[in-house]
C-alpha cells in the first residue's frame, strides 16, 4: 500500500488570515533603537507593544515577596516539585560532563575544563498563556550548570504582572526578575542599557519576534537555539487508542494557530478514527478556537505500510516532540535519530515534558532536530581546552613538527615559533636565527 493521507495541510500556510509582516525589519528597528537610546527605547516599545510602563521594570525583593504571597499554596508546592524534577535531571546531566587531562606524550599535557557561562538572560513568554514552566527549564538548568548571574524577563499579561511566573522565576534561582517582554527585553539583555547589565547568553522560547531577535543578536551573545512554533508528531500502530492520539495531538495544537500536528500510522482504521475523534473533541475543547485553526491548517494524518516506514518518515519531519504510541515504543530509540524529544508509550505524553516530568521543553523546531538537540545543562557550559608542555625534549620535537606543518601552509611566522623551541631545546640551527 502506498503512503496515503487521510488529512493533509491546508494550502495557505503563510498566516491565519493570509497577512504577512516583515518580522526581520520590525525586529531590526527595535534592536537599533535600544542600541542607540537604551532605556528610553525599551520603555517606548514596552508602552507601544505591551501597554506597560511602570516606574521600574525590575522587581524589588519586596515586590517579589508581595507577588508570591498572592500565589495559591498548591501552585507554589507544584512549582517546587516540578523544579526539583528539572534540577535532579539537570544535575545528573552535569555529572556526565567531566573535566579531563591526559599526557598524550611524555611531558605533553592536554586537557579540558567545562566552565559555566558568567551571565544568562532567561526569557519566559507570556502573551496568550503564562508559561511559568519556561522558568523551570531556563533558570533551574542554568543554575545547575553553575551560572552565577541569571536575569529573568517575562512580559505582563493584559497589563498585569503574572504572579505564578514570578514565583517560578524566584524559586528557580533568578538573581533579577524584570517584567519586560518582547524584542525590547531580548535587546536590553543582549546589548545592555543604563539599568540592564548585558548578559552573555539568552535562553528561552518566544513568539516569532522574540525568535528573530535572538537570531539577529546571535554572535553578539550566545543563544540556546532558534525556535519556531511548537510541533508534535505521533507514531501510532494498529493497537493505538484513537482517543489518546486525538487528545495528545490537540494538547499541542492549542499552543497557537501555527502548530504543525502530524499523525503517522500503519493502520488506516486508527487514522480514520483519530480524525473523527479530533473533530469530536474540538467541539468541547475550551481552546478549540486556537487548536482548531492549527489543526485545520497544519494537521496531517498519514498512513504508511509499516512501522519501519513510519519511523523513516518521522525522521524526515524531524519534529520537536515525537510521541510513540506503539506496542514496543522503545524500538524508536534504535530506529529514529531526528527528534527534539521522544515520548515513549501510552503512559507518557508530550504535556509531561512541557510541564512537569523534568526533561527540558526548550527544543529544536523547523527541522533543526536534524543537527541539534534542545536546551540542557551543557548549553550553559563552555568546554575549553588547555595545553601544557613540561618536557624540553618534547617541546623541541613538537617545534620541528610545527615548523614543517606550518611551512606546508606557507605560515612562516607559525613555523618560526616552532623553530625557536627546536633551537633552544634540541640545538637545531635555522638560518633566520643566525
UniProtKB/TrEMBL annotation:
Belongs to the histidinol dehydrogenase family. NAD(+) binds at residues 123, 184, 207. It catalyses: L-histidinol + 2 NAD(+) + H2O = L-histidine + 2 NADH + 3 H(+). It comes from the Eukaryota. Substrate binds at residues 230, 252, 255, 321, 354, 409, 414. Catalyzes the sequential NAD-dependent oxidations of L-histidinol to L-histidinaldehyde and then to L-histidine. InterPro entries: Ald_DH/histidinol_DH (IPR016161), Histidinol_DH_CS (IPR001692), Histidinol_DH_monofunct (IPR022695), Hstdl_DH (IPR012131). Binds 1 zinc ion per subunit. PROSITE patterns: HISOL_DEHYDROGENASE. NCBIfam families: hisD. Zn(2+) binds at residues 252, 255, 354, 414. The active site is at residues 320-321. PANTHER family: HISTIDINOL DEHYDROGENASE (PTHR21256:SF14), HISTIDINOL DEHYDROGENASE HDH (PTHR21256). Its cofactor is Zn(2+). GO terms for molecular function: histidinol dehydrogenase activity; metal ion binding; NAD binding. Keywords: Amino-acid biosynthesis, Histidine biosynthesis, Metal-binding, NAD, Oxidoreductase, Zinc. Pathway: Amino-acid biosynthesis; L-histidine biosynthesis; L-histidine from 5-phospho-alpha-D-ribose 1-diphosphate: step 9/9. This is Histidinol dehydrogenase. GO terms for cellular component: cytosol. It comes from Cladophialophora chaetospira. Its EC number is 1.1.1.23. The lineage of its organism: Eukaryota, Fungi, Dikarya, Ascomycota, Pezizomycotina.
Amino acid at each position: 500500500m502506498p503512503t496515503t493521507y487521510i488529512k493533509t495541510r491546508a494550502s495557505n500556510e503563510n498566516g491565519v488570515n493570509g497577512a504577512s509582516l516583515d518580522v526581520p525589519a520590525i525586529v531590526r528597528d527595535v534592536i537599533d533603537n535600544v542600541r542607540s537610546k537604551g532605556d528610553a527605547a525599551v520603555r517606548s516599545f514596552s508602552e507601544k507593544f505591551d501597554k506597560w510602563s511602570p516606574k521600574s521594570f525590575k522587581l524589588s525583593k519586596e515586590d517579589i515577596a508581595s507577588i508570591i504571597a498572592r500565589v495559591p499554596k498548591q501552585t507554589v508546592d507544584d512549582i517546587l516539585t516540578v523544579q526539583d524534577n528539572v534540577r535532579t535531571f539537570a544535575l545528573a546531566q552535569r555529572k556526565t560532563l567531566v573535566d579531563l587531562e591526559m599526557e598524550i606524550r611524555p611531558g605533553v599535557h592536554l586537557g579540558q575544563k567545562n566552565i559555566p557561562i558568567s551571565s544568562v538572560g532567561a526569557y519566559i513568554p507570556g502573551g496568550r498563556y503564562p508559561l511559568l514552566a519556561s522558568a523551570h527549564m531556563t533558570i533551574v538548568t542554568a543554575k545547575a550548570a553553575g551560572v552565577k548571574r541569571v536575569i529573568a524577563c517575562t512580559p505582563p499579561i493584559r497589563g498585569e504582572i503574572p504572579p505564578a511566573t514570578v514565583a517560578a522565576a524566584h524559586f528557580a534561582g533568578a538573581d533579577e526578575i524584570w517584567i519586560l517582554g518582547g524584542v525590547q527585553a531580548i535587546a536590553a539583555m543582549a546589548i545592555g542599557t543604563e539599568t540592564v547589565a548585558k548578559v552573555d547568553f539568552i535562553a528561552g522560547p518566544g513568539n516569532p519576534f522574540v525568535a528573530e531577535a535572538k537570531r539577529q543578536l546571535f554572535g553578539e551573545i550566545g543563544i540556546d537555539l532558534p525556535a519556531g512554533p511548537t510541533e508534535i508528531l505521533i507514531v501510532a500502530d494498529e493497537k493505538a487508542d484513537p482517543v489518546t492520539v486525538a487528545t495528545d495531538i490537540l494538547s499541542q495544537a492549542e499552543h497557537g494557530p501555527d502548530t504543525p500536528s502530524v499523525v503517522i500510522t500503519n493502520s488506516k482504521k486508527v487514522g480514520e478514527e483519530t480524525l473523527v475523534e479530533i473533530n469530536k473533541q474540538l467541539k468541547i475543547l475550551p481552546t478549540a478556537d486556537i487548536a482548531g485553526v492549527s489543526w485545520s491548517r497544519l494537521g496531517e494524518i498519514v498512513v504508511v505500510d509499516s512501522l519501519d516506514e513510519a519511523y523513516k518518515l518521522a525522521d524526515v519531519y524531524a519534529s520537536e516532540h515525537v510521541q510513540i504510541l506503539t506496542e514496543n515504543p522503545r524500538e524508536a530509540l534504535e530506529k529514529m535519530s531526528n527528534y527534539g524529544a521522544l515520548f515513549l508509550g501510552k503512559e507518557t505524553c508530550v504535556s509531561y515534558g512541557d510541564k512537569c516530568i523534568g526533561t527540558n521543553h526548550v527544543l529544536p523546531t523547523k527541522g533543526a532536530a536534524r543537527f541539534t538537540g534542545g536546551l540542557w545543562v551543557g548549553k550553559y557550559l563552555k568546554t575549553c581546552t588547555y595545553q601544557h608542555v613540561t618536557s624540553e625534549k618534547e617541546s623541541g620535537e613538537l617545534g620541528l613538527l610545527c615548523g614543517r606543518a606550518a611551512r606546508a601552509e606557507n605560515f612562516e611566522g607559525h613555523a618560526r615559533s616552532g623553530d625557536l623551541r627546536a633551537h633552544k631545546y634540541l640545538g637545531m640551527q635555522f638560518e633566520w636565527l643566525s
